[in-house]
Design goal:
Largest sheet: 7 strands, antiparallel
Distance between the termini: 24 Å
Number of strands: 18
Shape: globular
Radius of gyration: 17 Å
Order of helices and strands: EEEEEEEEEEEEEEEEEE
């Protein structure tokens, strides 16, 4: 089966309709107006079940549709409100959003094992997982965005992921983890957030964190 699909997203957001309900609690802030008495935030980049500070993300599924598609960087995580604080790249200040409303933008993921030799070995400028298609939307390799299966995209170390589709150890499915590395057997070593255990799983058995 063909692993590569040219995307047809010209003129619109490829994730239109990727909704998460009305209670997305978006709050726009600027540096000049920081609320007093804010809840504690998590700034520890070693917490595996959260996106680290400075992770690039794309907003999606918000009831405030003007923010959907905006790109920014994670600044912190508010553990009381269960929201990421995201600093928008367009200078529009900060927003507080649920984990379900951010898509991890992965850079330098490597294409491998497709039926297109000219693509194999290429590094993506950005890759975002689309749960509807089950593929990563990859940009920066060709002049158009292409869609690539998880098993054909090698994610870099440090990427936060969710394990999925493991039949030999079904208890792993749904667990958050961090990619430690990969090897020539088409498997990642993933450190689990819950136990700290390191497990080896196939490339196709993980997707970026918060994507499901």
């Amino acid at each position: 089966a063909e692993e590569i699909f040219q995307s047809f997203f010209s003129g619109g957001d490829p994730f239109v309709g990727f909704g998460f309900g009305d209670d997305d609690f978006v709050m726009r802030r600027t540096r000049a107006r920081r609320p007093m008495g804010r809840a504690p935030v998590v700034r520890d980049s070693e917490r595996i079940d959260l996106l680290p500070k400075r992770t690039v993300v794309k907003l999606c599924g918000l009831t405030n549709e003007t923010l959907n598609g905006s790109v920014g960087q994670v600044d912190a995580f508010d553990s009381e409100r269960q929201r990421y604080t995201v600093r928008l790249s367009d200078g529009g200040g900060e927003v507080a959003v649920k984990p379900a409303n951010v898509q991890q933008v992965i850079s330098e993921a490597r294409v491998e094992g497709t039926s297109h030799p000219d693509l194999n070995g290429s590094l993506a400028a950005s890759a975002i997982f689309n749960s509807t298609s089950g593929r990563y939307v990859v940009e920066g390799i060709t002049d158009k965005a292409i869609a690539i299966k998880p098993e054909n995209l090698v994610l870099p170390p440090g990427t936060r992921v969710t394990i999925t589709g493991v039949s030999s150890r079904p208890a792993l499915n749904g667990q958050a983890g961090k990619i430690v590395g990969s090897d020539g057997t088409e498997r990642y070593t993933v450190q689990l957030a819950q136990s700290g255990e390191q497990v080896r799983v196939k490339f196709g058995a993980v997707v970026s964190l918060h994507a499901l």
